Amino acid sequence: MEKENVSRPGKQSKLTAYVLVAAAIAAIGGILFGFDTGVISGAILFIAKQWNLTHKQAELATSSVLVGAVLGALAGGVLGDRLGRRLSILYATVLFLAGTLIVSIADGMTSFLIGRVLIGAAIGVASFMVPLYISELAPAQIRGSMVSLNQFAVTVGILVSYGVNYYYASTQNWRAMFAVGAVPGLILLFGMIALPDSPRWLFSVGLREAAEKVLRKIRGTPEVTEELAEIDEAIRSESGGKVSDLLAPPVRLALIIGVGLAILQQVTGVNTVIYYAPAIFKGAGLQSDTAAIAATSGIGVVNVVFTGVSLWLIDRVGRRPLLLWSVAGMTVALMVLGLGFALRGEAAEAGGGGLGLITAVSLMVYIAFFAIGLGPIFWLLIAEIYPLKLRAAGMSVATVANWGANFLVAYTFLTMAAVLGKAGIFWFYGLMGILTWFFVKRLVPETKGKTLEEVEEYFIARAGRPPKRQEQSGLRRAS
Ligand code: BGC
Questions:
Q1: Which ligand 1 atom is at minimum distance from the Cα of 274?
Q2: How far apart (Å, rounded) are the C-alpha atoms in residues 431 and 275?
């Protein structure tokens, strides 16, 4: 019979060195994600010069990775279920290395674009397969920080890309800029060869003995019968695992949360800051290139540091409070940013350059609040809220929405800034922030400390189906 909530099997397991190493290796996938979305901002200047690109071609070269990521995320759902989490990451890494090679030796736009789309596809798969893989290995009590290692790696990847851009800028060697990505790529490749697949996936495809073996290894104890039984029970209570089941009541809410947060994470403007920071700083009055670049690196550092803070807080404070604080802080910062631009507009003739400081500070505050919450928690939640058989499919849909929205925002930013004005666009993102806050408040449940199977029970209970172990499923209802 079931015991008390606190003593349920998945929750007793401790962090072992093995799980930590496995999570750290898989999280290198996040470095690829961050590095390749960041490196283009520097490289494109030299490619455009060397190949005489038109404005449209340069835009295409920049956004091709996002198109690839949408395609990769789409295919990733099927891959994750058929091949397993580990092989999916492994194949994505091979694709990434092939794309990196092609881009580094590209002799024209066609081969360059092919390489960038391949890199994008690899990142599209890895962006959700890595959190998925880690979530299925991690003990419940520290799953938040372990899964968020991936987001930490994303921010490190972005920062490294700024450094690499800076390093090669004097020689204009854009090929070398991309080639650096092969280093984490190769480490991930060899690392994933050595790691086992997720015990939950192994179990779901009937490889029970293999699942048990992996579970013993990662938990560092032969006593895994109870955790296996819990996984088994969850799988039995699930429906067939067809993609259409994503729309059935218990999963529908999880789908709405996943896709909603995916879009809101992007339409609150984070990537306009990541991609266009130097331009924003210059527009705000930081006159010199060096000052704009230094301020941009500052953004990268703040992003890494506060994602680190989030790793520490996420399993202590919980996902909901962190998200609510994060979105509130981002919204205030966006409003101030808009105000800064509005005032500067008026004060421009009078030489309102001092407002550059307001811009710099509010952008830092904005990114810090993003990093403690909405950044990591979106990727964490989508790895927690879907039932095992639909986890890869549900994450794939949310990830497609995320990369799709990323693409749209990147594409519309300059046009929107022209139509709404610089102040208007940041106020618009601020408005989206308010919407996000209410969305979280109303719909997002607290998943801190719960096993993935308990989270599953919560959604069943909330959809009104008689839950099997409702009394133990101590998830708080979002109110
Ligand atoms: C987002 C990316 C963003 C990154 C910045 C991620 O969570 O999905 O779009 O570039 O955070 O740190």
A1: 10
A2: 21
The answer to whether 382 and 251 have CB atoms below 8 angstroms apart is no
Query: Cα of 270 to ligand 1 centre, how many Å?
Result: 7
List CB contacts of 259: < 8 A, sequence separation 6 or more: 397, 398, 401
pLDDT for residue 466: 52
Nearest CA to ligand 1 atom 7: 375
CA-based max dimension of the chain:
76
- CA of 307, closest atom in ligand 1: 12
Nearest atom within ligand 1 for CA of residue 379? 7
Half-sphere exposure of 432 (CA within 13 A, CB side): 20
CA distance 69 to 186: 20
Name the least confident of 232-241, 360-369, 381-390, 403-412: 232-241
Q: Whose CA is nearest to atom 5 of ligand 1?
A: 155
For the chain, what are the domain ranges?
Answer: 1-239, 241-479
Residue in 164, 192, 207, 9 with CA at minimum distance from that of residue 89? 192
Using CB distances shorter than 6 Å, the residues near ligand 1 are 37, 151, 154-155, 158, 265, 270-271, 274, 303, 375, 379, 402, 406
Alpha-carbon separation of residue 76 from 132, 266, 398 (angstroms):
11, 20, 11
Q: Which atom of ligand 1 is nearest to the CA of 375?
A: 7
Instruction: Name residues whose C-beta falls within 8 Å of residue 380's C-beta, 6 or more positions apart in sequence.
Output: 131, 135, 143, 144, 147, 148, 151, 314, 319
Atom 1 (ligand 1) nearest CA: 375
Residue 304 CA to ligand 1 centre (angstroms): 11
What SS3 class is residue 445?
Answer: coil
Atom of ligand 1 nearest to the CA of 271: 10
Name the residue at shortest CA distance from atom 12 of ligand 1.
155
241-479 topology per CATH: Growth Hormone; Chain: A; (1.20.1250)
pTM of the model: 0.91
Asked if 1-239 and 241-479 have one fold, the answer is yes
Per CATH, is 1-239 categorized as 1.20.1250.20?
yes
Contact present, 450 and 142 (Cβ < 8 Å): no
- The alpha-helical segments, DSSP class H, found in 238-354 are 249-267, 270-283, 289-313, 319-347
What is the CA angle 201-394-263, rounded to 5?
140
Separation of CA 239 and ligand 1 centre (Å): 33
Distance, CA of 395 to CA of 268 (rounded, Å): 20
Per-residue pLDDT tens over the stretch 406-450:
999 988 888 888 899 889 999 999 999 999 999 999 999 999 999
